[in-house]
Amino acid sequence: MRFRLRPSDDSFYEFFTRAAMNLVIGTELLSELALPGVDVQSVSERLVEVEHDSDAITHQLYKKINSSFITPFDREDIYRLGSLLDDVMDHLEAVGSLLYLYGLTKLPSLPRELHEIVKVLDQQARLTAEAMPRLKTMKNLEEYWVECNRLENEGDNAYRMLLVRLFSGEYDALTVLKMKEVVDELEAACDAFEHVANTIETIVVKES
């Protein structure tokens, strides 16, 4: 029987939960870009604000790790999970910024597949936010990482179909180049959510 000394301080889990809730806010903001007459600059600026808040949470988490004698699980895993959550937010913010800076929302309409990927990201964000509080007990998390990985596959399919559309001749070459950068950030965000899920699976297995 293994004996583990665990801190009663719940702040580590609170950091993860706050970071995950920011991801929900981020995907909600991206979803606003599909609304008619949306203020794209405002959406982009709000995404930057949320990304800055996520950075602050990550720095607070790192500071907490460095000042704690005992952590709820391996320090390396805490660092990795915090960093990966921050990576997702970075990709979401990049999507909003690029759409605004490249003027892509001035197109008659954004590709349907792009909105499909954003919908997948929104589902992944909500799953992740719901899972974080359960990290404290390490229970009832398997469905989360399985579903998150399934959604990543769904996002990959939408990404491939969007590439097919981009190179079909529907758009001029410059628009394709701009859109491709946005699409790659969306795909990277889907992958980053999967990396978070895989890391949580690893933590649960190690701690069980």
Report how far the terminal alpha carbons are from each other: 12 Å
Percent helix range:
over 70%
Computed Rg: 18 Å
Shape: elongated
Would you give an account of this structure?
The protein has 208 residues and is mainly alpha-helical. Helices cover 75% and strands 0% of the residues. The protein has six helices and no strands. The chain has helices at residues 11-32, 40-67, 75-101, 112-131, 142-166, 173-207. Helix 1 packs parallel to helix 3, helix 3 (75-101) packs antiparallel against helix 6 and helix 4 (112-131) packs parallel to helix 6 (173-207). It is elongated and about 55 Å long. The N and C termini lie close together (12 Å). The mean pLDDT is 91.
Give descriptors for this structure.
6 helices; 75% helix; 208 residues; mainly alpha
Helix and strand layout, with pairings?
Layout: H1 11-32, H2 40-67, H3 75-101, H4 112-131, H5 142-166, H6 173-207
Quick structural gist:
With 208 residues, the protein is mainly alpha-helical.
